[in-house]
Design a protein that fits this description.
- The protein contains eight helices and twelve strands.
- It has three domains: about 5-80, Winged helix-like DNA-binding domain superfamily/Winged helix DNA-binding domain (Arc Repressor Mutant, subunit A, Orthogonal Bundle); about 85-200, ATPase, nucleotide binding domain (Nucleotidyltransferase, domain 5, 2-Layer Sandwich); about 215-270, 2-Layer Sandwich (Nucleotidyltransferase, domain 5).
- The strands form four sheets. The protein has a five-stranded mixed sheet with strand order 5-4-3-6-9. A three-stranded antiparallel sheet has the order 10-11-12, covered by helices on one side.
- The mean pLDDT is about 85.
- Helix 3 packs across helix 4.
- The longest helix has 18 residues, at about 120-140.
- The protein is α+β, with helices and mostly antiparallel strands.
- It comes from Gimesia maris.
- It holds the Pfam family MarR.
- Belongs to the ROK (NagC/XylR) family.
């Protein structure tokens, strides 16, 4: 798979049907095409077309099903661990973590830097993050697959659709930063921006709980306090991605000053 195909591949897997099919294969693979159509609620012709495209892009591979015997043994579909890898970037006031994970959810490289990001200027903070991403790209240079994209977990309020970090109570000089645009220009890769807490609940739900629960409530606390909800199988972000900002709910009338500029916030009281 050539690196120049990354944006074409990104467009393919972000369409609804390919995304649903990849999700079903990740969850139930190896899985036959017939069962895939049943579980995804997608027509068999659509399954055939989409699976063919995903096989051509080397995102999927076929393997014999363990419960299939005889001369006409059926093949099942699984994610190809050598299709490539994605890089996840998470940063807080205390430092940053960057990992590379292949398409079978195996961590293939990681790095952590414990550095005070709070007082840095926007340019200094971005350069610090870039250095860690460059380190991961160097570690993964000899892997068979290419980097398929970057996911950035920002600790503040974001505009997901615009790809902008709007503000953060724990990072100075961090207002209306066009994260997606900056990272795409720097690394020439597709970039996804998410709120930190919403990223963590997805990781725990998918990798540890195997999406067995329809409802979850996740609380993240450290330098700040945030949360995320999963209700009826849907992650709740709320208006302007503010559903998890309960660290800034007012919980007291006492004059406790918060870093966000408010008074009486849960985050300030808990500090």
């Amino acid at each position: 798979m050539k690196k120049s195909n990354n944006f074409k591949l990104h467009k393919l897997v972000n369409n609804r049907i390919p995304s649903e099919i990849l999700g079903c294969i990740r969850k139930w693979g190896p899985i036959s095409r017939a069962r895939l159509a049943e579980n995804c609620g997608v027509s068999r012709p659509a399954i055939t077309r989409t699976v063919s495209a995903l096989l051509q892009q080397e995102l999927l591979v076929e393997t014999a099903l363990s419960d299939s015997k005889g001369p006409r043994r059926k093949d099942g579909l699984v994610l190809n661990p050598e299709a490539g890898y994605c890089i996840a970037i998470a940063y807080t006031v205390e430092g940053l973590n960057v990992i590379a994970m292949d398409t079978s959810y195996t961590v293939v490289a990681e790095t952590s830097r414990w550095v005070d990001l709070h007082p840095m200027t926007e340019e200094e903070r971005l350069q610090t993050i870039f250095e860690s991403v460059d380190d991961i790209l160097a570690q993964t240079r000899d892997l068979k697959g290419h980097c398929l994209g970057l996911a950035v977990a920002d600790p503040g309020v974001i505009d997901h659709e615009a790809g902008i970090a709007k503000w953060s109570s724990i990072l100075q000089h961090w207002h209306n930063v066009p994260i997606v645009d900056i990272f795409q220009k720097r690394f020439q890769l597709p970039v996804l921006l998410l709120n930190g807490a919403s990223t963590y609940i997805r990781a725990i739900d998918r990798l540890e709980m195997r999406e067995q629960s329809e409802n979850m409530f996740f609380v993240q606390f450290g330098a700040g306090i945030g949360c995320c909800f999963k209700l009826g199988g849907i992650y709740i972000s709320g208006n302007a991605m503010l559903a998890g900002e309960f660290g800034h709910w007012k919980v007291t009338d006492e004059p406790v000053q918060c870093r966000c500029g408010g008074v009486g916030c849960l985050e300030a009281v808990a500090a």
